[in-house]
Amino acid sequence: MSSPAGQGAEGLEEAMINRDYALEEFFRTEMVGDREVLIGLAEGDIPNGDRVVKTNSEPGDGHQDGTMGTVVGALEADVEVRAKLRKQGLKQVRWMYWVKFDDLPEVPVAIADFRIEGC
Asked: What is the DSSP string of 39-89?
């Protein structure tokens, strides 16, 4: 599933403002306290409900290597996003996942595919 209206990351913000697509095509919502959180609807390479472990932590990450969680959603990075990451020499991302980590299960966290592994 690509980003709204086939646009890359730069066009995503503008598309969200212009609403030239329906959020419901790509996301479901979940309330966390008094905030509405968007969670990707796609089924990634790691299926929803599967257990994962956090890897490739960086200083300042809220969850460190070894933290366990459950996948609750996904959204595939489109071709434009992957090309921009490659051009910038950044790690490649195919899927963004939403994970509820065991230490904070009420909050779905968006995380790149290379930062989690299936158990």
From this structure: EEBS--SS-TT-EEEE-S--TT-SS-TT-EEEEEEEEEPPHHHHHHHHHTT
Do the beta carbons of residue 12 and residue 4 sit within 8 Å? yes
Amino acid (one-letter) located at 13:
E
Tens digit of each residue's pLDDT (9 = 90 or more) over 10-47: 555 665 565 556 778 889 999 999 999 999 999 999 99
Token pair, residue 64, equals: 């460190």
Q: Are 71 and 111 in contact (CB under 8 A)?
A: no
pTM recorded for the entire structure: 0.77
Residue 65: closest CA among 53, 81, 82, 80: 53
Closest-CA residue to 40 (of 11, 3, 15): 3
In angstroms, the CA 98 to CA 52 distance is 11
- 74 Cβ partners below 8 Å, 6+ apart? 40, 42, 43, 44, 46, 48, 95, 96, 97, 98
